[in-house]
Amino acid sequence: MAAVCQVTGAVPGFGHSISHSHRRTKRRFDPNVQKKTYYVPSLGRNIKLNVSAKGIKVIDARGIESVVKDLLAKGVKL
């Protein structure tokens, strides 16, 4: 599963792990992406979304209908 949130667009960040001796090695900071299933009354069916923890909070605040409308306007296939 790709580490990209469908709601917020959060993608991995890149940086360094720094050891005690201050050697730097490349690392990747992945967002907390989870596969969630939501029932959308306007579509009359369940949809599965890959959403980050912040994306779940956005859905709770704005409502799934509003978020799905925005995703469909962007052209995301649900």
From TrEMBL:
GO terms for biological process: translation. The keyword Membrane does not apply. InterPro entries: Ribosomal_bL28 (IPR026569), Ribosomal_bL28/bL31-like_sf (IPR034704), Ribosomal_bL28_bact-type (IPR001383), Ribosomal_bL28_sf (IPR037147). It comes from Microbacterium rhizomatis. SUPFAM superfamilies: L28p-like. Belongs to the bacterial ribosomal protein bL28 family. One of its GO terms (molecular function) is structural constituent of ribosome. Keywords: Ribonucleoprotein, Ribosomal protein. This is Large ribosomal subunit protein bL28. GO terms for cellular component: ribonucleoprotein complex; ribosome. It comes from the Bacteria.
